[in-house]
Amino acid sequence: MRAIRDSDDPEAAARRLRAALPPTDAFLGEGDAEFFIPQLDWLQWSLPAAALGAAPHTHAAHTDVFYALDGNLELRLGDETVRVPAGSCIAAPPLLVHGFRNPGPGDTRLLNAHAPGGWARGRRRFEREEFDTFPVERGSPTVRGIVSGPGDGDRLTKETRLALVKVQSPDLDVLEYAVSPEYTGASEHMHLHHADCFHVLEGGLEVTADDRTVHVDPGMTVIVPPGVPHAFTSAGRARFLNVHAPSYGFSEYLRRVDAGDDVDHAAYDSHSL
Predict the structure, then answer these.
(1) Nearest to residue 37, comparing CAs of 53, 24, 20?
(2) CB 1 within 8 A of CB 271
(3) Residue 74 belongs to what H/E stretch?
(4) Which of 13, 99, 142, 179 is deepest in the core (most CB within 10 A)?
(5) CB atoms near residue 179 (< 10 Å)
(6) Which regions of the chain carry the CATH code 2.60.120.10?
(7) Is 180 in contact with 163 (CB distance < 8 Å)?
(8) Residues 170, 227: Cα–Cα separation, whole Å
(9) Which residues pair with 82 in a beta bridge?
(10) Cα–Cα dist 102/107, whole Å
């Protein structure tokens, strides 16, 4: 990071570093597409009325996040039970006992992220150490969940966008953006240590990754692993989720940029190209 920051030609230094990294690509999927990278497992669930998603359990080493797309979701979070509508985001930090189900009356669709990744692959191979899932006895009574309803969250406002901080934790930050057609997004940049993820809820985005530009429609997801140059902008009015995993203080970084502070971008793992 210091070599890029201090170089007379940061773009050339960044591209040399990119060439030295293992080859990676951005991932684009829609509907029930699933993504598994070291920084993040990204899944989508569909549950009929009264269906159980997962019985109460706990994770020791990763955060479990849910975003309700349609319908209602009921969760156990520690010694509490919460029922939330579409547009809500819930996070279960490590050692929090949690489980979830669809209380009805209709179907429920939700996004589910595990950060860092590894849970899904371990679960499918029944490898406990990678699965990182334990009985409720492993839970801690002092850990609290994060519940952010529709429209809730710390509001980071600029002329062409509103960003709601839905989850802010070391494992990942989740933000929900509402942007105008004039929103210009971010010019080409790269993260060396964390993944940058987009899921479009309404409208559309134009995302460029490694010189390939794609139009991202509602229901589509783009996962940008570390080391991949990327940029994005709105394609008209849009609403989308943006996930950084691990966080690298992204929400705090955005607050400081909005405030016009003199920011060391590299300290937040953000490198302009």
Answers:
(1) 24
(2) yes
(3) strand 73-77
(4) 179
(5) 22
(6) 2-30+153-272, 35-148
(7) no
(8) 20
(9) 75
(10) 7
Q: 175-204: per-residue pLDDT in tens? A: 999 999 999 999 999 999 999 999 999 999
3-state helix, strand, coil in the chain (%, to 5): 15, 45, 40
Report DSSP state, residue 208.
E
Q: What is the DSSP string of 110-170?
A: EEEEEESS-HHHHHHHT-HHHH--B-GGG--TT---EEE-TT-SEEEEETTEEEEEEEE-S
CATH no. of 2-30+153-272 = 2.60.120.10
**Would the pLDDT of 155 be above 70?**
yes
* Measured CA distances, 180 to 28, 66, 232, 250 (Å): 23, 26, 14, 22
Fold annotation for 35-148? Jelly Rolls (2.60.120)
Which two three-digit tokens encode residue 114?
């595990």
Kindly report, residue by residue over 104-119, the tens digit of the pLDDT: 999 999 999 999 998 8
Distance CA 95, CA 199 (A): 27
53: tokens are 């998603």
